[in-house]
Design brief:
Layout (H helix, E strand, L loop, with lengths): L5 H7 L10 H11 L7 E8 L11 E5 L10 E4 L2 H9 L4 E3 L1 H8 L7 E4 L4 H4 L3 H4 L19 H10 L1 E5 L5 E8 L4 H17 L10 E8 L5 E2 L2 H5 L5
Parallel strand pairs: 3-4, 3-5
Antiparallel strand pairs: 1-7, 1-8, 2-6, 8-9
């Protein structure tokens, strides 16, 4: 069994194991229990019924949180020529072609979002082993393989709160939706948009209930069980 700190144990005692909270109640409690000395990241974890052994049941998507993630997002763009100039002018943190590809291939991954223009995709295919497991590999399905004309919009969205999500090998979807310092209304807005995006990506092959359990937590806090039916029904106004 992992050994928890006294601080964690003290706050965990305030979350009964058999308690299930409504989303707003869970967020209020989460904020109350975020007692670390830094602004903790707020996360949601969804256990789905998808059988991820089948490609058609894997969930993957992207959303833009209305109140952002509360952190600086470093954007990398694989591009050359005019597209590279557009990316730099749009505020990308790292832009390049062969030199940048070689740097990433050697193991450097000090960025949060990876974008690429289609013309350079054949060059970065070999980076899948470095970027794939971290969710940083440009992919047309998640809108990170971007024509040059769309780079300013996507870079702006990435820095504002663009969030990718997908099922992991245990069929769980993990997502961040802000910081513990955010107001409850802002966190509810972000969570609502995130859940609406997840439900839109529900695979047709999944029958019956899609989400089995859901928890919200902060970086250093305990998991708080959230009512699944209410969570799945959240819709942006």
């Amino acid at each position: 069994m992992p050994k928890h700190s006294r601080r964690y144990s003290a706050v965990a005692e305030r979350v009964p194991e058999d308690s299930i909270y409504q989303p707003r109640e869970a967020i209020d409690l989460l904020k109350e229990l975020s007692t670390a000395k830094f602004d903790e990241t707020v996360e949601v974890h969804l256990r789905t019924t998808a059988d991820v052994r089948h490609a058609e049941q894997q969930v993957r998507g992207v959303t833009v949180l209305p109140h952002g993630l509360g952190k600086q997002v470093r954007v990398l763009v694989f591009a050359n020529g005019e597209a590279a100039d557009i990316a730099r002018q749009a505020g990308a943190d790292f832009v390049g072609d062969d030199d940048l590809i070689a740097q990433v291939e050697s193991g450097w991954v000090e960025f949060d979002v990876g974008l690429a223009i289609p013309e350079i995709m054949s060059k970065i295919g070999r980076l899948g082993r470095v970027l794939g497991r971290r969710g940083l590999m440009p992919n047309p399905r998640t809108g990170t393989l971007v024509p040059a004309r769309d780079l300013p919009r996507v870079i702006q969205e990435s820095k504002a709160g663009r969030l990718e999500f997908r099922t992991d090998r245990t069929a769980i979807i993990h997502g961040q939706f802000g910081k513990s310092s955010f107001e409850t209304d802002s966190l509810m807005d972000n969570l609502t948009v995130f859940m609406d995006s997840v439900m839109r990506e529900r695979p047709e092959a999944v029958k019956g209930a899609f989400i089995k359990s859901a928890y919200v937590t902060s970086s250093m806090g305990p998991g708080i069980s959230v009512d699944v039916a209410t969570l799945q029904a959240l819709k942006p106004e």
